[in-house]
């Protein structure tokens, strides 16, 4: 054993098979990947122009503090740049928060299933993970509160939740935060916030002034379609963010990532278009689920979770037809694609599910 013993209870992150490999393995001409909640419409076209303008800066270290980007995002969100902390994806901000806050005697409270990185990093730090099962795909905030004790350093609320797509509304979230002790940090991961259309979806930024122990996570990987560049950020109390900033690697976000994030933020028309198309796409899947009597969770995101049996088998069969989704023990998660991609996937999913019923 080389690493800290608790690390060997974890597994290295295993991504789904890349499209090229699936193509070759199954002898397919076309593969549609609806597995990682990436944007089927790509990113703002302004990004392509911006990239051409930075070619003379490749030999120079980036601005580690992401100053220009901080100013821009701060103005967009109506917060101060001091309240922001950028990372190589929200993933890295999760790591920075965990590294900065957790001692081995601490514990974290999170949901299950939820985004796995909260628990993953806590285990690396030797802290205890208290997972509270979702109820009907939704965070059980009452039970989560009960799990908090004086060693609880972080409570993670993934809102909307990945992989179920469900959300905690404004009243529920504020009531929860109010009940959490000040010495416990509440991290609200809003990776999919752009897609949320519910009128009672929380305006979490508003809560930051009142509750100094709240941190919000956002990313450019999902709705902004910039996953390959690795850029995301945390929003929180300026003093807290300044302390967490000490943990950050000197040059954790690249110059190119900072530049593309800035131009993408300027193109809110692109985001609006994607959200409208996404809502239509969700409706395609909901119609299908209702027709086929497949239980699903209402989603505020660009994916939908369906409770199907033998999810592993369903995944395999779809993959062999060139459609990559994600399987979980409780069901399958499908990223909303373009209209045509959704139609095709629904066609094949119907076949796979009906075929199975006949076999049984
Ligand atoms: C995708 C995702 C992230 C991480 O995104 P980055 O690409 O690291 O910015 C964080 N949280 C949730 C819930 C996600 O789904």
UniProtKB/TrEMBL annotation:
A Gene Ontology biological process annotation? L-histidine biosynthetic process
- Looking at the record, the residues that make up the Aminotransferase class I/classII large domain are 30-348
| Species the sequence originates in | Gottfriedia endophytica
> Pathway involvement?
Amino-acid biosynthesis; L-histidine biosynthesis; L-histidine from 5-phospho-alpha-D-ribose 1-diphosphate: step 7/9
PANTHER family from the UniProt entry: HISTIDINOL-PHOSPHATE AMINOTRANSFERASE (PTHR43643:SF3), HISTIDINOL-PHOSPHATE AMINOTRANSFERASE 2 (PTHR43643)
Named from the GO MF annotations, one term is: histidinol-phosphate transaminase activity
Q: By what name is this protein known?
A: Histidinol-phosphate aminotransferase
Which reactions fall under this protein's catalytic activity? Answer: L-histidinol phosphate + 2-oxoglutarate = 3-(imidazol-4-yl)-2-oxopropyl phosphate + L-glutamate
Q: Which UniProt keywords apply?
A: Amino-acid biosynthesis, Aminotransferase, Histidine biosynthesis, Pyridoxal phosphate, Transferase
Q: Which residues carry this modification: N6-(pyridoxal phosphate)lysine?
A: 222
Q: Which HAMAP family match?
A: HisC_aminotrans_2
Any keyword DNA damage? no
Q: Which cofactor does it need?
A: pyridoxal 5'-phosphate
Keyword flag Transferase:
yes
> Which InterPro entries does this one have?
Aminotrans_II_pyridoxalP_BS, Aminotransferase_I/II_large, HisP_aminotrans, HistidinolP_aminotransfase, PyrdxlP-dep_Trfase, PyrdxlP-dep_Trfase_major, PyrdxlP-dep_Trfase_small
What's the name of its gene?
hisC
* Top-level taxon of origin: Bacteria
How would you summarize the oligomeric state and partners of this protein? Homodimer.
Protein family: Belongs to the class-II pyridoxal-phosphate-dependent aminotransferase family. Histidinol-phosphate aminotransferase subfamily.
